[in-house]
Amino acid sequence: MLLTVILVYTLLGAYIPAKRRAASLEKELRALYAQEAELHTKVAQNENRQTLRDQQLIAVTRERDALARKLQEVQRELEAMRRR
Fold this sequence. Notes:
Blueprint: H1 2-83
């Protein structure tokens, strides 16, 4: 009888807290997975924004270079006209 009581106490004394701890850890794990998914979404959004900014920078740089070439052409034409 004493052995049965010790066995039941050990099983219930160890099983119930362990089960509660496992449930708590599962809940925490689900929360971490949700947070990870949210962070992945933010990273993807930031990467998309960065790609767009890079494309805009390339376009603005090309436009600036084209304007600089046009300015040089106009300056050359002006110099040529002044020499006449």
